[in-house]
Amino acid sequence: MIENKFENTQVIFLTILSLIFLAANSILCREALVDSHIDAYSFTLFRLLSGTIVLLLILFFKEKRVAINFKNNWLTSFMLFLYAIAFSYAYIDMQAGIGTLILFAVVQLSMILLALRKKEKLTLKKFIGVFIAFLGLTYLLYPNEDFTLSLFHVFLMFISGIAWAFYTVLGKKSLNAMKDTTENFTKSILFIFIFYILFIDSFNLSSYGIFLACISGGLTSGIGYLLWYKVLKNMEIITASIIQLIVPVIAIFLSIILLDEKLSVTLFVGTIIILSGIFISI
After folding, report:
1. Could you tell me if residue 49 is left (phi over 0), alpha (psi between -120 and 50 degrees) or otherwise beta?
2. C-beta neighbour count of 180 within 10 angstroms
3. pLDDT tens digits, 233-267
């Protein structure tokens, strides 16, 4: 009994910590891009590269060897890259709190659809909660004179959310979170270089921008996603999708304190509606 309570407490702690790390990624990315400390591509490059290095070091010290499987599991690595690159470019013209709210609302919808495809049950309580949460998202995105969003950057955040949903659902199959997360990051580097060959012709770098990207990669992404993969096996896909909607609330709180972003009436009301949906679902 005591052992089970300890395990449950550990899962709850790791879940909360991973959600804080997920929220921190938005703050770090927005801080890096808002005053052009670094361009969106370079932020993604250093983010994925630093995450790869940290995870490879941890894997080596844990298992005394590093063996990356380059034959399988490329889809998960591509989804990690797609999430990260669309995420960075979306934040060129989007506040951290709003971006995170859109991102994880899309994640929730995508994961629920994937869960239903896998025959998970959507109870009436969860359905009502999801419906209310998306009323809040619709209210947030509905155009008005005092609150406008770039539709192109919203579209990029939608792409990022769909990719993260797939990355999360694919992670349910993980039997070794450490090894699989390290492989995902390592193989995502190939896609970031392919993106460079196809699209990139200029860079904007500063030591501060690189520092923020490396913190995002090595700590809040590399370690954060490792923790997320560890706790995923303890919950259903639908539950995981609902819990992740707490991330925008954390991000909004941090963005107001650290980035001096404003809490508009629209953002406040939209957040309250979405939170209500989460609590009903849970």
Report:
1. alpha
2. 21
3. 767 777 777 777 778 778 888 888 888 877 777 77
